[in-house]
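Thread: quick sanity check before group meeting

JM: Hey all, I'm pulling together slides for Thursday and realized we never actually wrote out the predicted structure for the chain we discussed last week. Dropping the sequence here so it's in one place. If anyone has concerns about the input, flag it before I start.
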Amino acid sequence: MVIEPQYNEPLPQCEGPKLRPFHDPKPAVAFRRLLSDKDSEGHAHVFEAAIESIAYAIKMFKFYDIEEDRAGLLDKENDLISDDLLYAHSDPFYNECRAYGRLEEKNLNGRIAVRCHGYITIPAETEEYLEHTFQVEDWDRPRRDYDKPVSQRQPFRAIVKELILKDVPLTGKVADKILRDTKRMRRCGIFPGDIRTRNYKDGLLVDLSAARTEPYYLFNIRSAKQVERMKNRDLYMWEAMVEENQLATRLRAVRNEKYCARLRPREKKTTGSKR
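JM (edit): ok, ran it. Output follows.
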């Protein structure tokens, strides 16, 4: 049984960083346009919307199915991890809450990822409007929810972010900044996990729904080699992004093993004994 969240306090309700609610947790949201692909298989849909006449990017999350992550655990791991902890560390909405909570703790909100202004809930009644206006239908809402009156269905959970209208092309210089920002996040215990060109606007990361933030449950129960692989995923994705876009960068995220293999330790010259 999962504890029902209270949407008027920092979330998630677990040990570690949390994201505070927006200053008005149930604001009137005026949706202007869809910013993401309506057919995307991602974790959320992103809209430009106004709250109190101020424009924001509103990231509305799809509903999370805990069984998908349960299926990815070993039997012994399932015995160790409660549903509450699995939700708090695996739900993409909570992934962003925890990552932004840590950035807030470190005074880095808006400096290495787009600024976050907190989370809100949006009534289920909005679903019909979004489908009619923007043709957005895919929310992964549990089937049992549709058996209830609309007023009793789960609300949408959303994160309010700064709206970035300008952008910069991805160059080697920008890629180097992205890597420096990524490493700074990692030093804070945030492992973004999804470094792709589409996840950056004006050189700032805009998607943290795949982030793993310490304390993180799998880091405590997996082997050191497995944990290292999970933590380094973003570094290898940065390398792949650079290669895919054929960028000339000054930095490297990981060692170039092929180059290192060609290196040989220098042999020390031996000095003959004097006679």
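AS: nice. The longest strand covers residues 44-51. The chain has a mean pLDDT of 91.
JM: adding both to the slides.
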